């Protein structure tokens, strides 16, 4: 029987959790790398812990020796490097950390594979990004579109892309990059704009928030469902030859449209009035302003027009980029966050009541 052992960096993230589930269903032994921390960030994979095919190891993308040890112990047949400081805005505040993890971290993984003499038996997937295109030079973007990175995050990821290509050619290693366009889900971090919108829609609909503040409403993105995208990651490593692929839906929407779909899914119709910094979103039913533009959320350099062409992945890998539509994706996220906000409210009320009972001596 063919040995199928996957090692995932960034296993606690959105993509890492979905990929773990996907690979376990495929019969893999899945090993994930986590960092030692006093705070536990494992909520996305908590349901997998204890599963006989799921294992966790401590290591760090900034510590080459720890990577060498884990890769030597696991002897993976496939590595999925999903670990990254992946927030574009944060990369302007922490450019050095971003470069160390997102650029040099990729090199450390490649060298750890070589140090364990697994060059010919271990296939490597690198999570690249549509941010490589940055200040876009053509629309839509495909595998041949020139790169023009426009943030410290994108510049770091560009190194990762090219070092993967270099090791593929210099050492004949099976290593590939998946150029992922924006992919979201109910497991997306709450600081990312899409999750920020769906949570705000849920909170405003339930009277827990008054207003949502955003940056450039006209920014255009190609948004897909993370659960669909991890399948394409796997397909890239099952391909006969190591190649790089764009992973996208081929459909583009603005931040403004995302807001309209999200609030509609929460039962609120939004109408936008004004332009630029003065643009506002109003609840059609009440006339109340519920969305405003804030200069705090504008980036020093902003990418405004990302739109992927998934033709190659569709033709060569047989991947379906339209498995989950944009409207379905937004609906899934809002439904989850409507339930989350309601549950959080119930938990808050229970904590308040318990505190009052304790104060009055009604319970011990």
From TrEMBL:
Keywords: Lyase, NADP. Residues 7-333 form the NAD(P)-binding domain. It catalyses: GDP-alpha-D-mannose = GDP-4-dehydro-alpha-D-rhamnose + H2O. CDD domains: GDP_MD_SDR_e. The keyword NADP applies. Its cofactor is NADP(+). The keyword Protein biosynthesis does not apply. Its EC number is 4.2.1.47. One of its GO terms (molecular function) is GDP-mannose 4,6-dehydratase activity. Pfam families: GDP_Man_Dehyd. InterPro entries: GDP_Man_deHydtase, NAD(P)-bd_dom, NAD(P)-bd_dom_sf. It comes from the Bacteria. NCBIfam families: gmd. Catalyzes the conversion of GDP-D-mannose to GDP-4-dehydro-6-deoxy-D-mannose. Belongs to the NAD(P)-dependent epimerase/dehydratase family. GDP-mannose 4,6-dehydratase subfamily. This is GDP-mannose 4,6-dehydratase. It comes from Xylanibacter rodentium.
């Amino acid at each position: 029987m063919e040995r199928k052992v996957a090692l995932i960096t960034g296993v606690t993230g959105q993509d890492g959790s979905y990929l773990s589930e996907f690979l376990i269903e495929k019969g893999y032994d899945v090993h994930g790398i986590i960092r030692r921390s006093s705070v536990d960030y494992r909520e996305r994979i908590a349901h997998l812990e204890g599963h006989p095919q799921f294992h966790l190891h401590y290591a760090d993308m900034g510590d080459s020796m720890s990577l060498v040890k884990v890769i030597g112990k696991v002897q993976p047949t496939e590595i999925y490097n999903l670990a990254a400081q992946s927030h574009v805005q944060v990369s302007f505040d922490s450019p050095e950390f971003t470069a160390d993890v997102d650029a040099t971290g990729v090199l450390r993984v490649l060298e750890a594979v070589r140090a364990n003499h697994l060059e010919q038996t271990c296939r490597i997937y690198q999570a690249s990004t549509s941010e490589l295109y940055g200040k876009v030079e053509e629309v839509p973007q495909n595998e041949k579109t020139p790169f023009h990175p426009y943030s410290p995050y994108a510049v770091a990821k560009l190194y990762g892309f090219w070092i993967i290509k270099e090791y593929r050619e210099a050492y004949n290693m099976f290593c590939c990059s998946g150029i992922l366009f924006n992919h979201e889900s109910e497991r997306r971090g709450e600081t990312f704009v899409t999750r920020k919108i769906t949570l705000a829609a849920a909170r405003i609909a339930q009277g827990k928030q008054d207003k949502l503040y955003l940056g450039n409403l006209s920014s255009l993105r190609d948004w897909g469902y993370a659960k669909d995208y991890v399948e394409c990651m796997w397909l890239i490593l099952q391909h006969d030859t190591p190649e790089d692929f764009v992973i996208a839906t081929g459909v583009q929407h603005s931040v403004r449209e995302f807001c309209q779909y999200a609030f509609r899914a929460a039962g609120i119709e939004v109408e936008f009035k004004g332009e630029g910094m003065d643009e506002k979103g109003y609840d059609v039913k009440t006339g109340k302003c519920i969305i405003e533009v804030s200069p705090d959320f504008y980036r020093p350099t902003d990418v405004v027009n990302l739109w992927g062409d998934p033709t190659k992945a569709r033709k060569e890998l047989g991947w379906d980029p339209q498995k989950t539509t944009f409207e379905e994706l937004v609906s899934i996220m809002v439904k989850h966050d409507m339930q989350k906000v309601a549950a959080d409210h119930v938990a808050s009320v229970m904590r308040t009541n318990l505190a009052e009972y304790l104060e009055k001596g009604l319970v011990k």
